[in-house]
Every structure is written in structure tokens, then in C-alpha cells.
Design brief:
mainly alpha; about 110 residues; elongated; 4 helices
Length: about 110
């Protein structure tokens, strides 16, 4: 049973890292105009990835990932709903947050 749990955990880590690296690449060229359809798509993508991480991390024993991913999930849900403007500062902080989550996933992967 423990082997199955480790497989699930490793799959989560691998999939999350792939999704986060993909998100990070999308931030390179994005403008900070909320009227840009790319921002709308990006907001949806960030929300979905962070929602998945915040919801699953604790189930695989990675409780420390949930707080940051949950914060990003909330911010991008507000952007999706038009309650918050996408800005350069949000862009910078999101990339930093993605980097922090990737770093944590790498550490978890090395421990196992």
C-alpha cells in the first residue's frame, strides 16, 4: 500500500511541476491588460492549476504547498470574475510564487 501512495505522490509532483513550468512560460510574453484574451485564458489556467495543487497537496502529504497555491488560486479567481485587475505586480508575484512551489516540489522529490 505504501508503494502505491509513493507512486501517487510522485505522479502528483511530476504533473504539478510540468503544469507550473508551462504556466511560468505563459507569463513571459503576457501583457497586463485585462481586456487581453490571453490574460483571461491565463487567469483560468492559473486558477485551475493552483486549485488542483491546493486541493491535492495535503492528500499526498505536502501540506506546505497548500497555503501559497491557495492564495494564488483566490487572486486569479478574482481576476477571472472581474473583481481584481491583472497587474505587473501580480505578474511578478505569481512568477515568484510558481518558482517557490516548484522549488518545494523539487525538494520533496529529492527526499523520496
Amino acid at each position: 500500500m505504501e508503494d502505491q501512495f509513493e507512486i501517487i505522490k510522485q505522479t502528483f509532483i511530476s504533473n504539478s511541476m510540468d503544469e507550473l513550468l508551462g504556466l511560468k512560460n505563459k507569463f513571459v510574453d503576457v501583457e497586463t491588460s485585462n481586456s487581453d484574451p490571453v490574460v483571461e485564458e491565463l487567469a483560468n489556467d492559473v486558477f485551475m492549476v493552483m486549485h488542483g495543487i491546493s486541493g491535492t497537496a495535503a492528500m499526498v502529504g505536502l501540506d506546505n504547498l497548500a497555503p501559497l497555491s491557495r492564495k494564488l488560486e483566490i487572486v486569479f479567481d478574482k481576476i477571472r470574475r472581474g473583481e481584481k485587475e491583472f497587474s505587473e505586480q501580480i505578474k511578478i508575484q505569481t512568477v515568484r510564487g510558481i518558482d517557490a512551489i516548484i522549488d518545494e516540489l523539487r525538494v520533496c522529490n529529492e527526499i523520496n
